[in-house]
Design a protein that fits this description.
Length: 349
């Protein structure tokens, strides 16, 4: 009991000490010299790195508007520490609102993403947008901010590995908004996501974002018309993590579902597709299995007319082969002989 009381007292003492420190630092941000403001930003960055209690009372003391001012600083260190402090503060959910609701703060974060003095400042600006974009109500605000989406796309193409990761996650979050497709088309974001399918660092998130965006037919035809996209998605289905495979299957499903018969036939002609789909159906997530099964069915339907033109082939179901909730399908000619039979496992609904 005595140990618990001592620990509680110690914890309260640390909290009060941190609060007193934050109060001093915020005063420095407000009234100090340029050098003092840069030092204060650095210390607030460190204090906000851990603990929501710290993040809460730093913001309550009025640090966010003062840090936003420093985003305009010609001192690279002051700017870098200020944007990183905002990033750390934004981890605490109520602080996201404080940042977004402070007039001009979002615009200043985007300006650092575009023209920041250092690579780290630009990366942390992208990470701040990623953090803010978690909140649904802020997605449209971010997309409406001039240059925000364009600069995230630019970071995705030209940034460091860390910068690319934050940029693609921000774009993924924005893609979940129902009005995102038009904005992504206007900017270079979709092109950046397509190119990123070939980058193992960000390919899984890029596939997930494209799957969301391709719910709009205009996006499907832009994405699906590229042979490279389809090949990249199939490659991700082979080598990706379970989540990456699910994202790739979802993207390929949208291409087949919304892209028309020509795109379905292009997918159906991919070498080894049947084996890949069987592996997905047997080994990956429930959602991925369902979409893989639907892709198989669409590919089968797309090949039926050409098969019948060659020899009156029919696609039939051999119910004697049903087992373990699986149907075995084969193409059989009218004379009863098999011609290059394709056997694909499809779960029974």
């Amino acid at each position: 009991m005595a140990e618990c009381i001592a620990a509680s007292c110690s914890s309260r003492a640390v909290t009060e000490a941190n609060r007193a420190t934050a109060r001093i630092l915020v005063r420095m941000l407000e009234d100090g010299s340029d050098n003092a403001k840069a030092i204060a930003a650095k210390e607030i960055r460190l204090l906000a790195k851990t603990g929501n209690k710290n993040r809460a009372f730093i913001a309550e003391l009025g640090a966010i508007p003062l840090l936003c001012r420093l985003l305009l600083s010609t001192d690279w260190m002051a700017q870098e520490n200020a944007v990183t402090a905002l990033l750390n503060l934004s981890i605490f959910e109520p602080n996201k609102a404080r940042i977004m609701e402070h007039e001009g703060c979002l615009r200043l974060v985007v300006s650092v993403l575009q023209n920041g003095w250092t690579t780290e400042a630009k990366e942390n600006a992208a990470a701040t947008l990623f953090s803010l974009s978690v909140v649904h109500n802020y997605k449209k605000m971010i997309m409406s901010e001039p240059r925000a989406v364009e600069e995230l796309a630019n970071m995705l193409i030209r940034g460091t590995a860390r910068g690319k990761k934050d940029a693609v996650m921000a774009l993924f979050n924005l893609s979940t908004h129902p009005e995102s497709a038009g904005r992504m088309l206007e900017s270079s974001a979709i092109v950046a996501l397509i190119q990123s399918l070939r980058n193992d660092t960000v390919s899984e998130e890029a596939a997930g974002a494209l799957a969301l965006l391709m719910k709009q037919p205009s996006v499907v035809h832009l994405v699906g018309s590229s042979e490279t996209v389809i090949i990249s998605l199939v490659g991700l289905m082979r080598r990706g993590t379970p989540k990456g495979k699910e994202n790739a299957v979802s993207a390929l499903y949208e291409i087949c579902r919304r892209g028309g018969s020509a795109l379905v036939q292009r997918v159906a002609r991919i070498p080894g597709l049947n084996t890949i789909m069987q592996n997905i159906i047997l080994n990956v997530t429930k959602r991925a299995k369902k979409k893989a099964s639907l892709i198989v069915k669409m590919c089968q339907r797309s090949q039926m007319p050409s098969a019948m033109a060659l020899g009156g082939a029919l696609t039939v179901v051999d119910h004697s082969l049903v087992g373990n909730n699986t149907l075995r399908r084969a193409a059989i000619f009218s004379n009863g002989e098999l011609s290059n039979p394709i056997s694909i496992s499809v779960p029974v609904p």
